[in-house]
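Q: I'm teaching a short session on how sequence maps to structure, and I want students to see two examples side by side rather than one. Could you give me a first protein with its sequence written out and its structure tokens following it? Keep the formatting plain so it prints cleanly on a handout.
A: Of course. Example one:
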Amino acid sequence: MPIFRTWLVLAVLLCASAAQAIEDPVTFSFATVGDSRAEPGPELNAQDARWLQATRPYARILREIQAVHPNALFFNGDMILGYSLDKHELDRQYAFWRGMVAGLMEAGVYVVPVPGNHEVQNKVIDSVTGKTAKRASVVGENSWRENMGDLIFDKPRWTAITGNSMAGFDVNNAPPINGADNITTDQRQLSYSFDVNDSHFVVINTDPTGMDGRPPVNWLREDLAAAKTRGARHVFVFGHKPAFTYFFTPIVNKDGFDLFPEAQKEFWQLIEDSHATYFCGHEHIFNLSQPTKSAGGHSWQVIVGTAGSPFSARPGVSSNPDDRTYAWAVVSIHRSGKVHIEIVGFSDSFGSTRQLRAFDIEAP
């Protein structure tokens, strides 16, 4: 009898879940993760040493994303080691990464690229301090467009792969040169936005030439206002660098927008005002936070810079086991307006994939 009751309860739960799925179906879904580039070193196998890609964890993540079949994958930067002005070397690294995601595209998951600092920056000697610094360059930005521009956007391919139309995309809708954000170079296909159904998606270049580490807040403000006028219910923003550094130990250096507090404050106010969710990487770690919750804020920052780059938390440094987890997020947007976010991942020992967090966001 107890076994019969157990099966009866399971059957009721499954029927209820199926009924809910019928009543409130998912209208669009996406996965997001970032940072798959490898770090040169003796621990790399011959393949990864040549292509500078963390193939083993990243290939597994791609397989598992393909298995749940979201409509799109937003990859949040640092897909290549980069840091080079050598066009041939940059093209070579991009080619390997594009080869890795080609199967995902053919299987019905559109790949949306987000620029990271490794793609657009180069290492230079700072004229003031004399120390090595990382600075974005026109060479890096042009190389990004040459290697990623066909994805941003091939509208017929988008529709064929996702089954959804795209609206609101204009290649010229980018932070203007000599505008309020002090942009000095062409940002087309580096910062861009588009709509799917009643959701608005924004990609920002967090390292534009001359303004490294600062988000284009004035352009973003105008873009979000236009999206609201078009009736956007949900806003998702993707950038490489976090708005708020995750201090997994007290000695972690700031490495997000918090290096520029005024820009950080303006950016996050826009996120809060739009009831947006911000997905990012750069720190090679998983962290989920509501940075201004104590002040009444509700928006989430989701750091998932965990597609294979060396973990920010070295073994034994952090007591949180999730700090050394290859994690990614899967987001489901329902007809009712509910947004379900699930973060899953596997440990650095490559154990079983497990759910790390799951929560819902209701439409404002």
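Q: Perfect. Now a second example for contrast.
A: Example two:
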Amino acid sequence: MKYQPLYIAATGQHMGKTTAALGLFRAMQDRGLRAGFMKPVGQSYVVVDGDKVDEDVALIRDTFHTDGALTDMSPIIVERGFTEEHIFARDRLRLRRQVQDSYARLTDEKDVMIIEGTGHAGVGACFGLSNADVAEALSCKALIVSGGGIGRPIDEIALSAALFASRGVPTIGAVLNKVLPAKFDKVKRVVTAGLGNMGMRLVGCAPFEEDLTYPTVGQIKGHVKLELLAGEDHLQNRVEQRIVAAMKPEHMRQYLHDRTLVITPGDRTDNLAVCIEEQMGDGPPRLAGFVLTGGLVPPGRIMERLRQARLPVLLSNEDTATAARRINEIVFKIEPSDVDKIAAAQEMVARYVDTNLILSHL
């Protein structure tokens, strides 16, 4: 049976489109369906075999070993200058055909296609390829993912659905993501009723899963481009919290918990000694690692103890405040190496999203 393609949109960035795509792709495979994936317009890209492809495409390709050319799965990358170029040299039909041609090559021998959008429904309108335009060009039905809450998500879902409707794209329903667990039952009940008043369905409501937000030390290293001094075998340590250890050791100690990344000047050997002592004791905490700032490498005896503590030690040439700010500003997405996060995302969709209902409307 051939299904109509599903377009996963959102009311904004970082709402959970990729989490939904990971779970829905797995759900379709589990039903014996031959699924394909595409992100027609991408903004954040990685280079794979010389080609620039959206990072979510690389994630899906590595997770599910999908076939099809990566350049078809990610036909348009919005690089610096792209928007300005296409505003002044507008060729909407060429971009539209490029997306349609890539889609046609990917759909061969597929039962269903999952199309992931970029941002809210209007993103890309400036060069003629909004999410709604792309969904219309590929004859999709839309699924809208929003963040937790009541009033704001309902309003934003309605706004996105209206833009899809203006292009003749039906909206199957909405998924509410990152709902605070303490308010989960109330939010689900009220939003179900609120969307129902507008003739829409809530097809999924998922709680906020904090573990999905924790990066590894290695991911921080890559994003901020830090130097590795020690602990290469422990870069997969998850970081649950980050502290700036610029205070006296006796005050700092109370902030050390499991999976803490300690950011401290490299010459604060007193604080490093306390952290090593805590790490090598009999009980918790088990720290995540260190970022040493100021380009300052501790003396040999401290470095040797850091190696014995079996923790990753990274070096930043920036001052402590700047390094901490840069780390805290990173938005970490699920990456192919995040096997645990991928499994958790798939389990969350299977548990909280009505995948049977979604398929029944394709």
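Q: What should students look for in example two?
A: Point them to this: The first strand starts at residue 6 and ends at 10. Also worth mentioning: The chain has a mean pLDDT of 92.
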